[in-house]
Amino acid sequence: MSPAIPPQMHDVVFVLVPKFSMIALYGALEPLRVANRFAGEAFSWRFISADGQPVAASNGIPVSVSGGLKDIGTPSMAVFSASYEHEQGLGRPMLAAIRKLARGQATLAGIDTAPFLLAAAGVLDGHRATCHWESLPGFREEYPQVQATQSLYEIDRGRITCAGGSAAIDMMLAIIEGLLGRALAVTVADQLLHFRMADDRAQARAPARVRHGTEDPRLLSIIAAMEGSTEEVLPAAALAAIGGLSQRQMERLFRSRLGKRPMGYYLQLRLDKSERLLRYSHLSVRDISLACGFASLAQFSRTFKQARGKSPTRFRAG
């Protein structure tokens, strides 16, 4: 039996920030379209930009909108969509619009890096939230008052955030389930061939075993320890002990499975984190060096330049 037609239509406004992620936007939109097919006119949707002009996604494709921030009105839900340059959405009019929507009790959602906008407006204070894993370290440093998690999505008291990409589908399926029931959400997931229903949302990034193509518990335990301790760097002896290995055995294991030395791999993890903090946070370069386990700013600058071909300051400047 098809789910019953809902008693009200839910008005959803998508607010687009330049260079938003197309896959994330349509991952959030398409479940609504499919839900309407089976539940009547459950949802309506509109696209809005800051100035009422079309917005180009990160792939360069322009998307038409129906108006600007002054035309948002009083939607049931406002979904903010951003990606590579969320800073373009951090202007005063956008933050004021977010705060006004919050006062009007609209559900507020942020996709990919759009949680930065919600956090900057102060509407995520004390809430659980997530964002794209690449920008998560910067988000945590920039907004410590937000309970940031590395989940596919978070729903917490009228605030919904997701990591972007296909996680937008999971987020919207959970919203559909909450509003209209699990039967409809399962039907929509089935139509979208999306078999990861929202019960398991713990990981917003492919786990190490998938990224590295290994099931070796010794290697995975050492990598997990490295990823969890980038500020206080663990010595080689401690890492080997975590894997139940001698240091020589650990060296051989990393070389055979990853083609890298353990401490070289560890350094790469820390440099990758520093790159994300330079790109997505306003921390000083000195603070970033400390957050990534470097003994001094000079050591960090020298190591970063050797690895990336430019100093941290030049990298941040673009």
What's a concise summary of this model?
46% of the residues lie in helices and 13% in strands.
What does this structure look like?
- 46% of the residues lie in helices and 13% in strands.
- It has 318 residues and is an alpha/beta fold.
- The strands form 3 sheets. It has a 6-stranded mixed β-sheet with strand order 2-1-5-6-10-9, with helices on both faces. A two-stranded antiparallel ribbon has the order 3-4. A two-stranded parallel ribbon has the order 7-8.
- Strand 7, helix 4 (136-142) and strand 8 (147-148) form a beta-alpha-beta unit.
- Helix 1 packs parallel to helix 5 (167-180) and helix 1 (22-39) crosses helix 6 (182-191).
- The longest helix is centred in the C-terminal third of the chain and has 19 residues, at 262-280.
- The relative contact order is 0.10.
- The model is unreliable at 1-6 (pLDDT under 50).
Distance between the termini: 56 Å
What value does the Rg take, in angstroms? 22 Å
Tell me the fraction of residues in β-strands, as a range: 5-15%
Query: How would you write the strand order of the largest sheet?
Result: 2-1-5-6-10-9
- Detail the poorly predicted runs: 1-6
